[in-house]
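To the team - (2R)-2,3-dihydroxypropanoic acid complex, inputs and output below.
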Amino acid sequence: MKAVRKLMKVFITRRIPPEGMKILAAAEGCEVSQWDSDEPVPRSELLKGVEGAHGLLCLLSDKIDKEVLDAAGPNLKVISTMSVGFDHLVHSEIKKRGIRVGYTPDVLTDATAELTVALLLATSRRLPEGVEEVKSGGWSSWKPLWLCGYGLSGSTVGIVGLGRIGMAIAQRLLPFGVKRLLYSGRTAKTYAAEVNGEFVPLDTLASESDFIVVSCSLTPETQGMCDKAFFRKMKKTSIFINSSRGAVVNQEDLYEALSSGQIAAAGLDVTTPEPLPTNHPLLTLKNCVVLPHIGSATYSTRGIMSALAAQNLLGGLQGSDMPSELSL
Ligand code: NDP
Ligand code: DGY
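Output:
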């Protein structure tokens, strides 16, 4: 990698895997400061840390808005987020200032698809409930009607957002014997033929699917998309899974749908807010499985994400190509 000539200040908003730190440490002319903790940087420290920075390496939990950009000042050339989602970045402000943005697509697709399938199976086959029954002594015998759930074989699966991760989820689910694969989005995809995907309106997807998996990006259009009207269209025996962003779902409406028996169960890897408060109503429901946003959490994936985020940052600082640049 080409050396960075003049001294460039970089602020990293969290402790990140060593793969990324090594790349930045080896880059000439980079003065790195970091919020060296596993917990999020307090807003006041973020505002202090970015002052005069040329580069910012951030995470999905850092809201990068006008206030942060103003605090950084005119030096800031590049924002590199260690995530594929970029809904935490205020695009209009970043674009206005001509700041380049790097993100981490593809490298986390497999891990996230794998976790989503695990969540779907855990939810539909009631694994957390089963584990709890074993521990609490609720397991009295093999019982014909106990802890029954829903299987994928012969089912219809609906994917909301057949992008990189949606497609990888579809590819992993098909071998379970899925009969029909529906998907919705803004446009039909030619690559959907690989999974025999049928492009359908969201309403059709909601009413015909036995399993619904949300894997779209969070945009003004998708915010709150899974609401009362959506859940009312679902079958009473259907399972709802979300591994995209919490805000795609209206959680009050989801609670109502789950507690009234409008839908069978839900599995969420993402919520609003994160963390979900431990007294949140959704956590009182047996038919709701909530995970702490661990879609991409394998050691190797997180290492690769941090390396890619570091390379994107250096590309932006040098004014050269970034391996994964987001066009705003
Ligand atoms: P992609 O950009 O490849 O896919 C996003 C998909 O969202 C596109 O297919 C797009 O479809 C779809 N979409 C956009 N608008 C709508 C809409 N109105 N209705 C339905 N679909 C829509 O991104 P990835 O697959 O790589 O990632 C998707 C998201 O997953 C990320 O943005 C992130 O939020 C989340 N994620 C969560 C993780 C976790 O840990 N749980 C890990 C990684 C990602 P179209 O092209 O038709 O617009
Ligand atoms: C992302 O990258 O957007 C995920 O939510 C975390 O890996």
